[in-house]
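Need residues for this backbone.
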């Protein structure tokens, strides 16, 4: 018999933290909304660090990735753990969709499935080229460079013809180790911001608007960006739900980050399926929707077995 229905995953920094600040309190609150919602469905729930070596992962039916925000800093270790634990229990979202979503090549799959992404060029690992050559090849004056596997704007740079020489050495070092993506700089993100639409069980629940601080282009709060409640249009909601339908399998939760591109078209910025900030504190009912979907999944799988 399984001891738990669901284990909510975090990272060890957020398990009984000795000191609290607003950031950590938000993490705890977000996870607690999910925990309470699952318990209200009559499920047995606990919350642990993903790398807790003392826990027997075979004792839970499901593990739910939530605030595992150190995984990309420890990717090799995380990948090994993911491979092991996926054989011991059921992952939400699944290992298959996690591995697909970790690598920004997934944007190409979305595009092939009819979801609009902004102009994007993938530079594969060990490619012998320079930023100057790339900017000429793709006619780019202002563009953004970032790794295909990344998080929290790691190695994300805004590059122009005026400063391109300053990043040649950085690019040379990075491309020797990992694939990169370059995209034309999207001016609308700076002017209008980026919309995050939360989708639970394939259906839109709520949205926020993320804006960059003055003088920056990154909307993440790690870099001074701000978050505001947002009421999306029907077009934006449909776009987000269709993006989720275009995934290789249906995720139990998703955050769809969209913006208006330089050509005035709605486009995917990122599709976050691993451990996204979901702003349940802005809309607690979304946690109930997620919990209901998980409960229904448990019932369905038990009926099958």
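Answer:
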């Amino acid at each position: 018999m399984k001891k738990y229905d669901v284990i909510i995953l975090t990272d060890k920094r957020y398990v009984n933290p000795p000191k609290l600040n607003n950031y950590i309190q938000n993490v705890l609150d977000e996870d607690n909304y999910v925990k309470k919602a699952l318990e209200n469905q009559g499920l047995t729930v606990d919350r642990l660090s993903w790398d807790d070596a003392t826990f027997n992962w075979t004792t839970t039916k499901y593990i739910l990735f939530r605030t595992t925000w150190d995984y990309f800093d420890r990717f090799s270790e995380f990948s090994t753990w993911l491979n092991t634990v996926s054989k011991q229990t059921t992952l939400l979202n699944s290992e298959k969709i996690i591995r697909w979503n970790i690598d920004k090549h997934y944007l190409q799959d979305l595009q092939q499935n009819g979801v609009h992404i902004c102009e994007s060029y993938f530079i594969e690992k060990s490619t012998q080229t320079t930023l100057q050559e790339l900017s000429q090849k793709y006619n780019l004056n202002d563009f953004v460079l970032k790794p295909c596997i990344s998080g929290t704007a790691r190695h994300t740079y805004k590059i122009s013809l005026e400063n391109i020489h300053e990043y040649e050495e950085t690019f040379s070092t990075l491309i020797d180790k990992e694939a990169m993506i370059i995209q034309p700089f999207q001016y609308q993100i700076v002017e209008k911001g980026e919309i995050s639409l939360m989708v639970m069980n394939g259906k839109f629940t709520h949205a926020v608007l993320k804006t960059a601080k003055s003088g920056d282009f990154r909307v993440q709060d790690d870099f001074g960006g701000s978050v505001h409640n947002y009421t999306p249009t029907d077009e934006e909601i449909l776009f987000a739900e269709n993006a989720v339908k275009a995934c290789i399998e249906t995720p139990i939760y998703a955050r769809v980050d969209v913006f208006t591109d330089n050509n005035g078209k709605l486009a995917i910025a990122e599709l976050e399926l691993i451990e996204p900030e979901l702003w349940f504190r802005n809309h607690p009912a979304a946690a109930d929707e997620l919990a209901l979907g998980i409960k229904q999944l448990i019932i369905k799988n038990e009926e099958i077995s």
